[in-house]
Amino acid sequence: MRKILALLLAFVMLFAMTACSSGTPAATTPEDSNKVDVGIVLPTKDEPRWVQDETRFMEALKSTDYSVEILFSQGSSAKEKENVDALIAKGIKVLIICPHDGGAAAAAVEAAKKEGIKVIAYDRLITGTDAVDYYVTFDSIAVGEAQAKYLVDQTTGTGNPLYLYAGAASDNNAFLFFEGAWNVLQPKIADGTFVIKNSSEAVALQGKAKLTRDEMGKIIGQITTNWDFNEAKNKAEAHLTSAKAEDKGNVFILAPNDGTARAIADAFAADPAVTSYKVTGQDAEKASVQYIIDGKQSMTVFKDVRTLVKDSIGMAVAILGGKQPQTTGSYNNGKVDVKAKQTEVIVVKSDNVKSALVDSGYYPASDFTGLK
Ligand code: BGC
Q1: Quick one: fold of 140-302+348-367?
Q2: Which pTM value belongs to this model?
C-alpha cells in the first residue's frame, strides 16, 4: 500500500513539474495590456543630457493616446540590444533610438526592421546599415563651429595655447562636432593665432583645411574623452603635467560637451600656471549654466531637446497613422542616405543665459543662484 502511495505521489509531482515547465501562465493577463506602440531607447542615465531627454519625452507624451515605453542602455550595446528585443516582443511599430555606439547598434535595428518596425535614429546616427528609416538631429557641425568661433573671438595676437578635446569615437556626432570646430579653428592655427598644445596628430594635420574621416579618427583617438567626465579630467591633468610653463598662461580649450567641460575646467582652474582659461561646452546642462553664471565655464551650445522630442514623436505618430513623416534633408550613414529633420542650435554665454534659457521657459530661474 505504502509503495502504491509513494508511486502515486511521484506521479502527481512529475505532472505538476511538467505543467510548470511547459510555461502554463500562473495568472492570465490580457495580452493587450502589455502592448507598446512606440519604444524609445536612450543611451545612459549617467549623463544629465539623456535624463533631460527622458523628462521632455514624458512631458510630450502626456498628450498622446499611444502607449510608449522608455528604456536606458547604460552605456552598453549588449543592454541596448536586449532593450530593443524586449520592445519588439511587446509589439512596437516604431522604435526611436539614440545609440550608445552608432556602429554596434546596427544589429539591434536590423532585428527591428525584420519585424517591419520603422526606426528613427534620435540625436546620434546609426551607421553602416539600411535599417534606419529616419533621423532627427541638431545641426552638429554648427555646434562645433559655434564652439570654435567663440574661442577665436576671445583671442588677441598670436601664439595662443590651444587644448583640444573630443567626444567618443563610437559616436558619429563626435566627428561632426570636431569637423565643425576644425572648419573654424584650422585657418586660425595656420595663421599662428593658436598653437595646439596637446595633440601631435592634430599638429601633424594642421595644414589641412578638410580632414578625411580617418584623419579625424586619428586626432579623436588621441584627444577623446569617451564622453566620460573622469577620463576628461584625467586627460586634462596629464596634459597639464607634461606641458611647459609657456604652454599655459591664458589658454583656450575646445571641450566637446558640458560634462567634460566642467571636468576639464576644474583641472585647468587648479593649475597655478594657468592665468585664465576659456572653455566651450554644449547641452546647456543645469550644472554648466551655473558654471557659466559663476564664470567657471565660458559658453555652452543650447540644443532645445523639446524640439527634438516633438519632431520624433511627430514622426512616430505620422508613421502610426500611415502617413509620410516630414523631413528637411538627409544624412549618409555609410550605407544609405537617411531622411532627416534637423534643428538649429543657440549659443549661450553669461549675457544671454536668462533670455535663452529662463525666459524661453526651458528652466525656472529658481534653479540657479546669482542669475542676472
Ligand atoms: C550628444 C551630446 C551629448 C553627447 C554625450 C552626443 O551624441 O549630441 O548632446 O553631450 O553625446 O552624451
Answers
A1: Rossmann fold (3.40.50)
A2: 0.91
